[in-house]
Amino acid sequence: MNLQDQIGVLEAGVDQLLQAAAAAHAPRADERAAAVPQQESPVASSEAEQAVAEQPRSVAVDTAADAAVAAAPADTVEAANATVTDTAEAIEPAAEAANAAHAQPELHVARPSQNEITLTIGGQTVTLNALQVGQMIEELSNARASMQPEPPPGIPQGWRFASTKNPMMAVQKQSNGDRLLVLRHTGHGWVPFTFSPDIAVQMYMMLTQR
What we know:
Layout: H1 3-35, H2 42-54, H3 57-71, H4 74-102, E1 107-113, E2 116-121, E3 124-128, H5 130-144, E4 169-173, E5 179-185, E6 189-195, H6 197-208
């Protein structure tokens, strides 16, 4: 049962309470009317009707509802209150579930073993091996290259990284004079870089300076 259905059940329970109270109040009203002689003067009756007519509708309805509830049998009121309470308790978890459905699912990353990574999103867990992790890194890297904002121009403070000593590399000369340098990182895999001739010279000077 969804949230709208449960609210409908709550409204139906309130309607049943008002109907039961009105039914219990009606016979007593008839008895009082039969016992009291009809001796009201026309002036008094007219003033009473005018006062009721001038009374705001909401106040009159609330007064009638309060009188009906007060005149209703105790067991009827208790049963109606129990129905309303049960319905309200049923609506609360449904509302919480609806709010949870609109919330953004969180990503949890775990490493149960050296060669496995688990990703959990919205209660669904996927286990990736080393090859699948490498494929995911490559796909994410290609997507990140076209996203904004770009990575920071400087090295972030507290940056954690795993460096590769003496990596394998491949160099290729482009038709426009640029150099394609591909380095093999143990975590990121093969990472390509393209250098224009002047930047290639600057990199050589940076690597050879003492």
